Amino acid sequence: MRPDDLRSAIERPAKSAGLSFSPPELVDRILADVGSQEGRLPLLQFALKETWERREGDKLTAEGYTEVGGVAGAIEKTAEAAYERLSQDQKDAARRLFLRLVIPGEGQADTRARSLIPQDPEQRDVIKLFSDPKIRLLVTGVAPLQGAAREGDMRATVEVAHEALIQRWPTHRAWVAQNRENLRARAAILRSMEEWEEKDRNDDYLLPSGVQLERGKALLASPGDVPIDDIRDYVERSVKKEDDRAAAEREAELADQKRIADAERKAKEAAEEAARQATARAAAETGLRAAAEQKALAEQQARKDAEALAGGAPAHDFRRRRGPRPRGGARGLRLRAMAQRGPLHRACDQRRERDGFGPRKIDARPQGHADRSRAGDLEAGAGAAAAADRRERVVSRRRASVMLYKR
């Protein structure tokens, strides 16, 4: 705005209201304070308003303008004066309230923010004082409720009247400097929360896992002076969504691990069972081969014995296999064999003797008769010995066959 236009903006409203500047040079002083910097019009407006509050009759005086601090100090002096009227608890509430009403700049100046009027009674008292028409540093209003179930739902809001308050009030600047990082986190969460409400609170628009969610959790854990009552529910919903997702992933991972462990266990059991079965089959096959070999050997020996009987092998062949024949005749041979065999074999021999298969008994005869029939006795004795020898050979072959099959 050009200097002439700015002068007109100062003098014309005063003249329309029937007011004049005393002295007239006060307008030049005000223009000098405004200078050529942009953003000074809100300061000028506030300074003129405060000067009007201190008018004398129909005159805007230099004394009143100086009292409010001029263009540069009007907002600062007014805000500090109102702040000093508060109790200590109300001052703490004021700090939380004004931090709610600022957006920290990222490489640029801090700006004002609109907020819902908090439920805290002390903060409401601060709003009532700073929005008083004589101070007018805060303004209240209403705004549509985003994501509301019914159209027309409204909510009460509050914001600073001039951004110059954020820039010029040293107390406010100190609050912002001390809590800048948390204010940035709050501003980012508020932007995400606004989109979430516009989308009817769809869970897809909650804070995603990662930096944003961790930032929100850190803010809830250590907010400092930054208010979190209006963002707590949104952040907690986001945390719960992430916890549920992580829990589902853990359950799925545990289920996969269990399936893998079960599969490995079953594979191990199957391998062990297969090894046991293979061992059992090998043992059975070995036993069968041994039995078959023994049976073959027995059959081979039986064939040899049968061939020997059928071919009329001489007695000396059997004696060679069984060893030298004991002396003493057939009876002596039989008695020696019975002594060497067990009780069962001896019982069998005794039975054969009773049945008439043993050696023939020779009755005792008178001495004279023996002399007369000596030749006949000798012939009969030779025949009996030969018969006993043949029987013994047959019995020996049978016993050999039986023993081979038993082995």
Describe what this molecule looks like in 3D:
The protein is mainly α. The chain has a domain at 3-73. It is 68% helix and 6% strand. It has helices spanning 3-16, 26-34, 41-53, 62-67, 70-84, 88-100, 121-130, 163-168, 170-178, 180-198, 211-221, 232-310, 315-322, 329-340, 343-354, 367-372, 374-406, and strands at residues 20-22, 59-61, 102-103, 111-112, 115-116, 138-144, 154-160. The protein has a 3-stranded antiparallel β-sheet with strand order 5-7-6. Helix 3 crosses helix 5, helix 10 (180-198) crosses helix 11 and helix 11 (211-221) crosses helix 12. The longest helix is centred in the middle third of the chain and has 79 residues, at 232-310. The N and C termini lie far apart (132 Å). Mean pLDDT is 80; it is low at 315-323 and 360-367.
